[in-house]
Amino acid sequence: MTDNKHKHRMEIRSKVWLEVDGKPVFSKGRGMLFHAIEKHGSINMAAREMGITYRRAWGYIKAMEERLGVKLVETRKGGAHGGGAELTSEAKDLLSKFESLKRGLDQQVDKRFDKLFVAGPKK
In terms of pTM, does the model score above 0.70? Predict the structure, then answer.
């Protein structure tokens, strides 16, 4: 007999990332970094928002650029008006495609999960 007070609702979780030669190049977290750079126009402010160091954020950017062979973030040196950073068109395209891929995969995973676990197996 099932005790409904102690019944837990099972959910599906999945992670997707892109790799080049077995090394991670893009993921949800790096997409969040891109969004924060767009929002703030600054790698430093983006890193601060994400709770990581500037050095770590810059390391992620450099690793992505090296593995993909394209410039992803354009920076401007500081000065009277301060420096800044913005995503290149390649970075915006990568972000858009990754998010579209992730949405599509999530929909398929949710559909399959519902079929197998929520609706239950057919008898």
Answer: yes
